[in-house]
Amino acid sequence: MTVAIEMGQTAAGSPAALDLEELLATRLLVQGNSGSGKSHLLRRLLEQSAPWVQQTIIDPEGDFVTLAERFGHLVIEAEDHTERALQVAGERARIHRVSTVLNLEGLDAENQMRRAAAFLNGLFEISRDHWYPMLVVVDEAQLFAPAVAGEVSDEARKASLSAMTNLMCRGRKRGLAGVIATQRLAKLAKNVAAEASNFLMGRTFLDIDMARAADLLGMERRQAEAFRDLERGQFMALGPALSRRPLGLRIGPTDTRPRNATPRLTPLPEASLEDARAVILAAPPPETPARPQRKPQPELLDQLMAAKSAALELRPEPPAPVVSEEELAERRARVERVLRAVLAEPDAGFRAVGVLYQEFVVRCRIEGLGTAVPDLNDFRRMLTRARAGLGGDDAADDAGWQDVSLRASLLPEDMQGVFMMIARAAKDGRPCPSDAAIARAYGSHSLRRAQRLLTYIEDQGLIVCQLDGAGRRIVTLVELAWATAPGDPNADDTTNESLVASSS
């Protein structure tokens, strides 16, 4: 069944229809400067599609909470809930098929990013049984998927960008159809914007944004000037759900109104200058006197610690000891021996990286390594190579392995070990790792997750999977032409253990 949503009228006066089923499969990007009518367009889309599909809106300004009165959306006040609570709320919203509005108004930029990421992750990380079609609208998407780092912490930015990337890149198979709106294409991360196949471009004035909009619509650069002449509510449309050629349209009216309406000019109140002076310059109310705080007396232990700190500051730092190449090699060998001991634990493949790192640090201190303990980022890289069956310096000068490492860096960090494990098996001509071995390297018990992981890596154009006549799996690395030997995907989890052992 095809559901056509009327978004308004074309320049010729005919109805402008949007194919909802096609939109669910191909996603939508809306761009326009402030005042161009983006929020009005999103409201029209939400109102027209509300009877047909479940919806959720990531609302940074609280503009869409009025949908609850007319269409029964559940408004979730993000500032009243923790990140964990919002992730669970996202999961439950999908399970029970309830349309929601995540109101982020009142939060600073960093907390908006953290809570939006948690909620989106809840929508995304749900079992296959609940992958119902869902329209996910993100207003002011440049706040949640910025092209460059801003004033927020790297942790918050990465979490939000990862959630937005999952929504636009991997959400389609889970039934999630991303609809993102932004004021500036130049401020939106390219890998997020590039996944949309439908575009509605409104009024914009900056040359860089006009040029990107023209490129996305397949228009010539000289035609980009037309975006400056668009009126409020006018958009250029292109995409399989809208039109196969650039089409001008005007968005129709909506039944609901935003809570934060556009300011309108109103007459000033009539008041004499003396009345205004009496009201504005009246004496302020008396301040409540603050209690003088009693200065705490420093304890004896505090005095001793302060004296010790002062003495340490005056003491010259000893010169850094010179470490020979032999000593460095011996330290690396001891670090790798500790890592192998950590991974030899029966449940090491299913424990969080942070937990493994804590145990790794403790064992390194027991070994007397002291300050030579790698930091968390170095440990992640070592763990990736170890799970792939590589030693610390294996294949360092091998051009093929350098290419493998480069290609692995295109994947999320938690997937790189799986890709390198498959590459190692292919280079050595070993059987393809089983689903159980892949799941273990990924840190999961789920065989389905291992299968989805292979599908995702194949979708990125890095590998090609095929089955032979006996149902055994063969994985070929693209361009390198390395191929694993046929392996039983249902075999026990022995491949990964043997690979890790071989690195010793």
Automatic annotation (TrEMBL):
Region entry Disordered, spans: 246-267
Protein name in UniProt: AAA+ ATPase domain-containing protein
Annotated ranges, domain AAA+ ATPase: 24-343
SUPFAM superfamilies assigned: P-loop containing nucleoside triphosphate hydrolases
Pfam families attached to this UniProt entry: DUF87
Organism whose genome encodes this protein: Bradyrhizobium oligotrophicum S58
Highest taxon of the lineage: Bacteria
InterPro entries xref list: AAA+_ATPase (IPR003593), ATPase_Atu1862_pred (IPR014588), HerA-like (IPR008571), HerA_central (IPR002789), P-loop_NTPase (IPR027417)
